[in-house]
């Protein structure tokens, strides 16, 4: 804790000891507590550093007029302070603990009704219970019963906190297990902190007794209690060591059995959680295995399916039960599609009958089928001896379900028609099935069905009633299946023709979402094709799929679209489509200059940010994948110059950041051979904006073999001439922090390369000094000049008077000015700037000092009403 | 109540309802699918069509070279197209009192019914139905009359001949009943019998029933009809739509509590969702234009075209089609576009509110103003000088057998960059294209049928809960081509009554009540007595007077005082004296009280025996039985009239008299 804060703290304590109603805002106490927690976790002793806190606690607790919020704060603070054994004793000496956590006191004062206080009580105790002495205190104070009561508190937060707390007590203090047992933090146990076994036994006894009692709901309104208890049990079983686990299972075994037999739908999933937790920790406990078997045999089809799905999700490796769960999940699909997945159905006919009945109701049919579908990929990955059919027949089933959904299935192949009509046209099932189909690419033998998959997916793309999400998912599935495909001989001319036609049609769709997905698909397809090409040179999937139909005209058309997202997607799709040509250094096609001019037009004129960002990205990928020298180089360099100058002046900060990335590529190229140049110095840049159009391709940079050890100044001159330095300088004074930060980093890299401050490089920098760049007399140029002028007057007032005069002139006449690049780089104070920029913009307002000051100021204003206080709260 | 079904076409119905004493024809649809068997009527001489070979049967026995032409393996009649009329033999059409028209598509057979059959009744329709229906008829007459066909083929209709014909011609029935188009005079005469009605307006028919049109949401002025008497209600549901298109939304609630609901005019394309089809239409159109091709849209001159134009109005800009011209060619194009703008009260709410703004309700006005949409009466004249390609042409007739569309088929059919987009659901597109084969032009079928689908109709029926539903038999089973789609049929409890052409259905509804008025003076003379709280009864003696299906009870006229006559009484000729009616009894005899009364009157030895229906009281001393049953009391005593009378009076004490 720094000195300033330590000085302010007593004053703050005094404020809080008052009524506490004068706090600047309701998060102050939380922030204060966070700060204290931080200090404690860093190993500092709060009690020593600020003895005033103890006084604060006792004053607050005794003050009948204390605000419940402040009281809750005091409770939690006490717990925090008492978290170590040493300070616990100190506090105990002041007999504060008994008063603070005295339930009876709070109840009598009528404050217990306030949920604020109850949660404070739980959290305070929770922080404190880190050592055996605290446990003894807890047990002696007989807090266990009230805590158990809070487990079913009306407030969900309190109930959850109580559950966590109960689990914490049992797990944290459980006796040190033999080495190698998972789930228990043994670090502190080694310090000889074993709790007295009587305390722990008492706690275990009461909690497990409670579990046993409350597990089975006595009346329907007690279901919530059972639910909470099951949650607690699942928490415990997942982490308990063998002695505790066995003890728990022994106690609650009967109750669990009773619950399983009762078969309450509401409790199915939490009950399954408990049983599965028990299974995974206890292995082959016969009783648990029996319970699991019963769960996978319950009578209600919907519950059963959820239980089976929960079982599979856990990834258990018990063959018998896995086989059972698989059958349960496949049965509805079997009924629906008439595909004999389960062979001749051997499960009791009664069960099948009840599933059919359930499936006849539309809503439950859709939900059941969706659960089954989402588990199919998992099912195909189970061992073959567990599967009742080949994994590939599951792919077939999903395909025939997709056909049923679109109403295209011929009558002979469907199963029960009363059931299958429920899913006809259901978008939800279609989406689920398409997702499943996408994931099923990885299942064994799936590739056998690829031709059928393509046919169905193309039908979906063709279907006029498919909604945009369904179309999007169809495209994704098509891409995924294309990416795993190595042999395209299955693609017939008809299939190819259909796909080309449907894509052509969909780029003209009425709905922009559909146009967008289609354009995206074309881009991704080019990407997939490239990666396949890399693997096997001879096959070209784009060629195979689209049959030589060039997608560029479609994408160029999309550049004119009225929807900005579509324009943006079209731009990045074009980049992906052309990447391969760029990499190969292919000659410039006729259409490329036209595309470039359209892109530059978008960059300068488009009113939306997305397409402009995409344009800069386009040039980034072009620049990073082109292989000079090629016929396209001059067009590229010419356009990069325009992009830099336009991107620099853009209003959108992301466009500016992308422009800086492009500038960085140019720097990399210019200086990659230079010994002092550190490439990728900006590697830890901020993650891309969620809405930004970012090409997935990493910027792979080609390194030059030519050495650049000499003539760095000519490189610098080139970079200046390209406009890179202007981009960096204008970025530096940008009001958007990410832009300024990136520019600053790049400028520092440049400075380290061309004019390092180390002495050895002085000679080189002398030559460098001759390279200069022009600053415009207005806008960012003026800002830079201002900074330079300020630095100059600070450092060397007498020097360079002539130059200074020049600078003054610039300010007056708004004419452009030439400055030496090195000079500028050194005089801009980049390092200080960097320091400021790396801190988040609200770092001042978030400091503890600021918090303490706020509290004090607010209280001062409160005592002197009439004065308004403006609190800066984000 | 009887229903005579004169048309088998589910969306072009023609039914006759006999209800109470009225005979009402419900719609008057003309089945035009018969024209598909004829060769197209070209506007300018078509060398291709004129060179088609005549048809001769394989063995050469039948030679109809002049009448039948062969094209791409199919045989067509080379004559003016003919239509399949509603059945005219099932009942005497002159007995029809009124014809109710539900929309302009369902009135095209009107001149055939109202003219030359002795029809003397009235036709009821809404104003837009009459106006647009007239446009449709005029267009049809114009299409036929501007390219008169010299010959009229009849030999092929000969039964012996027809049996030898190939393909669909062999199987068509009733060919002798097929008729050529009517003349403009017949149209005018038929339409002069139309009387205009507004939605929810009640029209009294002979005092027997009331008919009233309801908005059906399908097209401008389209209606469903309610036909009701005081105690019965029949709903007639024809082409209806729940989609938000241009017409006023459908009035569903007024259909509630029907005894019988006659359901026709569901969508012909149950698997084609109109929104999806509209999307298909737009994207195929854009795709063709971008590739430099022309788009031909065969369509009717009113209806869906308004929605298509509205949709394109929004789509043009987003698809960069701004400069592509759109042509609408029809003899009635101008009237159709203009009339649509003035029927404000018949439009959906959204469009109605535009009436108060300076902009017209439909955006096609703006398309016309900005020269994006141009309309011409035919391809001759101005159109030929302004025609610019690539373009989009909307023109009729959707059957591709007559109208300007024939010309464009000949013009564009050979090039694969052009596209024909079918949007009207009335004709199979493959049959429509048959005489143009081989065809290089791309064909897209996106039928837009906004009428109710099976899902919507079952929801509607669940809500309005009619007692009985009558519908075409096609709706009671899944479509032939998709027999597994059990969701594409009507499933109701009780099951709907299916009909087909020439069916006569006895509707299951029995009339049980009739409303009768009582004149005030008669009512004044009644003496009601309360038999239980809230229910009073009175006996009435009156004369029932019936006129114009209205029934009135009047007081019995007092017999004129008979002048004393010395003549011998002629007993037989005297009108029977009006006897005072016997009093009516009601109530039940309470056992305990009755026993007490018997006791009081000296019947002491009473043995009570309980039976299934009541009690038997045995008066032992008198050897008499009294049987007390729910609906009767019997006193059995041997020849003891005084005793019986006493006992009767005792029983009567407990009963109420009217």
TrEMBL record, chain A:
Transmembrane segments: none
Entry keywords, A to Z: Cytoplasm
Assigned GO CC terms: cytoplasm
Superkingdom of origin organism: Eukaryota
Statement: the UniProt record of this protein carries the keyword Cytoplasm: yes
Cellular localisation: Cytoplasm
InterPro entries: ARM-like, ARM-type_fold, BRAT1
Classification via PANTHER family: BRCA1-ASSOCIATED ATM ACTIVATOR 1 (PTHR21331)
Family of the protein in this entry: Belongs to the BRAT1 family.
Protein name stated in the entry: BRCA1-associated ATM activator 1
TrEMBL record, chain B:
Entry keyword set: Cytoplasm, Nucleus
Pfam family, one: Beta-Casp
Name of the protein: Integrator complex subunit 9
Start and end residues of each stretch annotated as Disordered: 548-569
Any one of the GO BP annotations: RNA polymerase II transcription initiation surveillance
Location(s) in or outside the cell: Cytoplasm; Nucleus
Location of the Beta-Casp domain: 305-433
GO CC annotations, alphabetized: cytosol; INTAC complex; integrator complex
Naturally occurring in which organism (per UniProt): Pagothenia borchgrevinki (Bald rockcod)
Keyword match Nucleus: yes
Family: Belongs to the metallo-beta-lactamase superfamily. RNA-metabolizing metallo-beta-lactamase-like family. INTS9 subfamily.
